[in-house]
């Protein structure tokens, strides 16, 4: 997962840096989003598109009301499209957002084998695209770049709605001013490790 390359134009760069440093996102202090997320997970098991569309719209409606933004439009589609990358290769499109129409599109099946995607992947995409909506209509950004702050805000929404712990993302600097998530370090830091016997009881874990 990579951030976008910082823009060269000063006006756009200022907004990019503001988004990059904007890591916090307020979330409801009740279960309103969690119950809607659970409903999406339940209907995904049924594989019925109308039920999935209804459950996702309910989640977006409740989230929009909490953040005091207009409710985005939504389409829940089948197999993910493949987009050809410049220089060769292709990438699956999990979802997208159009700020002019406020339309969120999310796909439910893999591009090649047409298998139902996991709930975690699907719901993470839904939260990701809704955070683009927040950038434009809550935070008044003129663009919605993929910055470290953006990914952290999306993670905050996702983990709150799933009731899972939020961890601060660990980043690795890449060329041209972009960053990528250091999954290896995050996994290592999250793995419990035994302390040396000389410094701790046998049963103590970090």
How would you characterize the largest beta sheet? Answer: 3 strands, mixed
Number of helices: 6
The parts where pLDDT drops under 50 for at least 5 residues are 193-206
> What is the spatial order of strands in the main beta sheet?
1-5-4
Give me the Rg, rounded.
19 Å
The percent range for strand residues is 5-15%
Mean pLDDT: 87
Question: Ends: how far apart?
Answer: 28 Å
Task: Please tally the β strands and state the result.
Answer: 7
Task: Describe what this molecule looks like in 3D.
- The chain has helices at 10-21, 32-46, 49-67, 119-137, 148-162, 183-190, and strands at 73-79, 82-84, 90-92, 95-98, 103-109, 171-173, 179-181.
- The strands form three sheets. A three-stranded mixed β-sheet has the order 1-5-4, with helices on one face. A two-stranded antiparallel ribbon has the order 2-3. It has a two-stranded antiparallel sheet with strand order 6-7.
- The chain is α+β, with helices and mostly antiparallel strands.
- Helices cover 43% and strands 15% of the residues.
SSE topology sketch:
Layout (H helix, E strand, L loop, with lengths): L9 H12 L10 H15 L2 H19 L5 E7 L2 E3 L5 E3 L2 E4 L4 E7 L9 H19 L10 H15 L8 E3 L5 E3 L1 H8 L16
Parallel strand pairs: 1-5
Antiparallel strand pairs: 2-3, 4-5, 6-7
